[in-house]
Amino acid sequence: MDLPREGGLLTDNLPHPFHRTGRIGSWADWPAVAAVRRFGRSPAINAMRRNLRKAQPAIDLMLAPYRWFGARLGEAMPKGLYARALIIIIAPIVILQSVVAFVFMERHWQTVTRRLSAATVRDIAAIVDLIDTYPQDPTYQQIIRIAQDRLGLIISVVPGEPLPPAAPKPFFSLLDSALSSEISTQIAKPFWIDTLGKSNLVEVRIQLGDKVLRVLARRSQTYASNSEIFIFWMVGTSLVLLVIAIAFLRNQIRPIQQLADASESFGKGREIPDFKPRGAREVRRAGASFIEMRDRIQRQIEQRTAMLAGVSHDLRTVLTRFRLQLALLRENDDVCAMRKDVDDMQRMLEGYLAFARGDTGGPTVPTNMSVLVDEVAEEANRVGHDVISTFVGDPIVSIRPGDFKRALGNLVMNACRHGEHVAIRAAHDDGWLVVNVEDDGPGIPESELETVFRPFYRRDEARTLDDSGTGLGLPIARDIARAHGGDVTLAPAPVRGLIATIRIPA
Asked: What's the predicted TM-score (pTM) here?
C-alpha cells in the first residue's frame, strides 16, 4: 500500500505502518508519516522516527499489563445478548449510585460525626473545668454523678496514673481524627483516646496535673456510622434495578431468540409454522424480512422442483422410446452397445436430477439412525462388499431419512469402490450426529481433499465418481449434509485409506 504523492514530494518509498506490523500500524510510524506528508523529508523528521521506534519496546512493555487485563476481561465477560444488556443497563446506574451515595452521604455523615464529637468534647471540657474549679472534693462524687445522669458519661479520676503510650493512628478512622482535633482545640491538655475497641464505648483520658481523668462515652454519642446504611442502600437499589431490568429485557430478548431459533430451524430444513414477528420495531422488521426471505426461497424451491419434475418426465419419455425401439431391433453388437449407452444416459440423468434437486427431500422426522446405518451396510454387503457398522448413543435423530441415506450410501459406495474393507462408525453425543466412513484404499492427497467436492471433478483414480459415473457422489453428500446444518469432510486414515465424516447437529 503506497502513500500518495503530495506537494511534489515522492513519498511512495516511505515505509508504511501496514508493512511493518501487519495490522493498523506501529504507533512510531504514524507521526513520521504525517510529518513527511506535511513538511517533506528532513533529518529532524528521520531522527524523530528513529527515536520513536527505539522507544516503542518500552511503551509496549508499559502497556502489556493493560492489554493483558483487557484480554482477560474480554474473556470473562458474558457472550449472550441478554447478559450483556443487563450489564450495560445495571453497571452504569450502580456505579453512579455508588459514587453519588459515597460523595454526598459520606460528606453528610462526616459533618454529623464532627458535630457529635464536638458536643461530647464540650461536655468533657465542662467536667475538666469543674474539676479544676473545685479541687477540694478528692472523690469528685457530685461531678461523677452529674456526668453520668445529665451528660451520659462515665468518668473517674485516677490520681498518680500516667497516660498510656500513644498507639499508631488509624488510617481510616474519622472518629479518631475528629475527637483528637476537638480535644486539642477545646481542652488543650495531654490526652489519650481509644476509638478502635470492639465495644460500643469510646475511652478518653486527659492528663490533669498529677491525676488522669478517664471518660467512657457511648460510641453513638460521638460517631454516626453509615456503613450499614450505605450497604443497604446499594443492595436495595441494585436489586430493584435488577428486577426491573430483567422483567423488561426478558420481553425484549425473547423475540430475538425466537428469530434466531427460527433461522436455525429453517437452515436445517425444519418446519417453523408458529413463528410471528414480535418485540421492538426493529426486531419486527427483521422478523418480517426473514419471513419474506423464507417464502421467497420456498417459492424458488417449489418452482425448481416443478421444473425438474417436468424435465425428468420428458427425458425419461424419450429414453423409454429409445428402449422400445431397441427392443424391436434384431439383437447384435451395435444394439447391445446402444442399449448400454441408453442405460448410462439413464443413470447420468438420475444423478444430475438428484444433484439439482438439492434439499427438496421433505421435512425432517425422528429417525432411528442405528437401523438406517445398518441398512446402508447391509445393502453394500448384498452386492459383494465388506462393510461393518457400529452406532453409539441415542439412536433417534431428526433428519430427512431418504436424503441422509442417499448421502451416506454415496460415501459408502465411494469407499467400497476403492477399498476392500469399509467401516461405518456413527455416534450421537453432545448435540451432534457424527458418522465416519473409513476405508483401506489408496486415499487422496491432502491438496485435493476439498477439490474432490467440486461437481463433475474427476481424478485419475476417479474417487469422486458415484454409481452413475457423473462425479456427483461427494457433492450430493455434502449438499445433503449442509441442508441439515452440517457438513462432510475428508481426512487421511491413520494407517492407510480415507475417512469421510458426516457431522450434523441433532
From this structure: 0.47
